[in-house]
Amino acid sequence: MYAFELNKLHVAELHRRAEQERLVRVAARVRRDDRRAARHSGRKEAEGPVSTDRKRFVHAA
Fold it and tell me: What is the C-alpha separation between 35 and 48, in angstroms, rounded?
């Protein structure tokens, strides 16, 4: 009976881990989709590509 109880606990832990990993994947997918939608809509985000306009600065002598 002891082995059966240990197995039940182990199975419950595996189910908990699997659900947690699914939630992490869903959250990552949502963040990725939000970034893609922002890129396509032209909306500015707090984190985005940095401007690389080098003509703004003068060359050192």
Answer: 9
Give me 1's structure tokens: 């009976």
Task: Provide the b/e sequence for 4-40 (b: ≥16 CB within 10 Å).
Answer: eeeeeeeeeeeeeeeeeeeeeeeeeeeeeeeeeeeee
Taking only the tens place, the pLDDT of each residue in 1-10 is 799 999 999 9
Q: What is the number of alpha carbons within 13 Å of residue 3 lying toward its C-beta?
A: 0
46/4 Cα distance (integer angstroms) = 52
What is the Cα–Cα distance from 53 to 44, expressed in whole angstroms?
18
